[in-house]
Amino acid sequence: GLRVPELVDLADLPDPSQRWITRTFAGGASANRRDVFLALGGFHEYLFHWGEEPDYCLRLLQSGRVVRVANSDRLHHYPVQAGRHTRARNVYINRNRMLAHWYNAPSLLLAPLLARESFVAMKEAVTTRNTVPLESCWRGWCGCVHEWRERHAVDPAVFSLFMELRKKKLIPLAEVEGRLPELV
Fold this sequence. Notes:
Elements: E1 20-22, H1 34-39, H2 52-62, E2 67-68, H3 87-90, H4 92-104, H5 107-128, H6 132-146, H7 156-168, E3 171-172, H8 173-176
C-alpha cells in the first residue's frame, strides 16, 4: 500500500528542549524557503502524486540542510488510503518510488533498490490479484528511461543519513550536524 510519511506531533518529542529533524514532510503541511526550494530545483515535474516530498528532502539534505520539526498552528492532513484512490492515481505509487531512487540513489545501491521495488510490485500484484502494481512498476522503468538525464546521485553518506532518518523518524539535530555536507 501507500507509504505516507508519519507526521510528528511536537508533544511527542522525546526532549522538547532540543532541535529535532525528520526525513520528510507532507507537502500540504509545510513551510519552505522559496530561494532554497528554487535553487534545489523544487519538485521534479515528472514526479507527481506521491513522492515529491521525500525526493526533494533528499536533495535538501545533500545541500547541507534538514527538515526541522517546528512549532506552528496545527494543520490537519487526511490522506485517502491507497485502495480508495482511482486506478489512474494508484499507478503512480510504485512508479514514483522507482523514480525517486533513479534520481538520487548512489550508483552502487541503484540496481538493488530498483530490483526491490520491482519485487514489491510483483508481490503486491500476486497477493491482491490486481494488475495496477505491475503497471505502476512498468511505468517506473519507463520513467527511469524517460528521465535518464535527470539522474544526480547523492553522496552515499547523505543517503545513509536519509535512510537512518526513515528508520528512526526523529533525530536531534546536534547528533547529525557533523555528518551534514557543507551548505551549498
